[in-house]
Amino acid sequence: MSAKVLWHFTMSLDGFVAGPNHSMDWMEGLPPRPDLVREYVEALGAVLGGRAGWDAAIDEARPYGDWRGPIFVLTHHPEDARPADGVTFLNCDVAEAVRIAREAAGDKNVEVLSPTIGRQLLERGLIDQIDIHIAPVLLGDGIRLYDNPGGKPIRLQPNATVDVRYHPLDATTRLP
Ligand SMILES: NC(=O)c1ccc[n+]([C@@H]2O[C@H](COP(=O)([O-])OP(=O)(O)OC[C@H]3O[C@@H](n4cnc5c(N)ncnc54)[C@H](OP(=O)(O)O)[C@@H]3O)[C@@H](O)[C@H]2O)c1
């Protein structure tokens, strides 16, 4: 498999990848898919993210728990970023950030774990693939996968048409 720039998220059915204030508690209790996680981790060479996601991450939290590869975080003010091992803060053009992350990733994938940066890269034709796992939850508020008011639709080549069907859980069994 050749190295890709992958926009990869778990997303609520209504299109949010984080709740209000970057909350991620809605992902708790989702059924684990260890085989799927392993597949992504084995192919992962570097992560490119944004400053808001980094600031919201708790302590030394890393993507996929114990993955320890290079992480690049885009910010306009790297001087006041919370430093951490393996994390490089970049203040450069997004295309240059991708070039740096690709070089670090070698023959593995770069995962873009930021809606904001993913949007910028899509506009520049720099995303190779979008992988989304739809979580069985409606959030109603938060950070959208793709937020671009006034922007043009971006047409995608699907692997397949996706049809999903859900039944609301009753109030006593809803996720927190
Ligand atoms: N559901 C999932 O699977 C999943 C996975 C990963 C992350 N997430 C969530 O995604 C959310 C990320 O939110 P987000 O997209 O709103 O924020 P973000 O991309 O993490 O951060 C936005 C910030 O990144 C910096 N930035 C963006 N583009 C830049 C550029 N071209 N040059 C320099 N700096 C740039 C700016 O920081 P400055 O203001 O410092 O300049 C900007 O304010 C987080 O809540 C995270 O938890 C969800």
**CATH topology descriptor:** Dihydrofolate Reductase, subunit A
Structural class: alpha/beta
Overall pLDDT, averaged?
A: 91
Principal-axis shape equals: globular
Return residue spans where pLDDT drops below 50 for at least 5 consecutive residues: none
**Count of domain modules:** 1
The quaternary state of the protein chains shown equals single chain
Describe the model:
There is one protein chain. This protein is an alpha/beta fold and 176 residues long. It has a single domain (5-144), classed as Dihydrofolate Reductase, subunit A (3-Layer(aba) Sandwich), CATH 3.40.430.10. It has 4 helices and 8 strands, in the order ββαβαββαβαββ. The strands form 2 sheets. The protein has a 6-stranded parallel sheet. NADP nicotinamide-adenine-dinucleotide phosphate binds next to strand 1, strand 2, strand 3, helix 2 and helix 4. NADP nicotinamide-adenine-dinucleotide phosphate is lined by residues 9-10, 17-18, 22, 24, 49-53, 56, 74-77, 91, 94, 113-117, 120, 143.
Overview features:
176 residues; alpha/beta; Dihydrofolate Reductase, subunit A; 4 helices; 21% helix; binds NADP nicotinamide-adenine-dinucleotide phosphate
Helix-strand layout with pairing:
Blueprint lengths: L4 E8 L3 E3 L15 H10 E7 H6 L14 E4 L12 E4 L3 H12 L3 E4 L2 H9 L5 E7 L7 E2 L32
Parallel strand pairs: 1-6, 1-7, 3-4, 3-6, 4-5
Antiparallel strand pairs: 2-8
The chain binds NADP nicotinamide-adenine-dinucleotide phosphate (NAP).
The site of NADP nicotinamide-adenine-dinucleotide phosphate has 25 residues, from strand 1, strand 2, strand 3, helix 2 and helix 4.
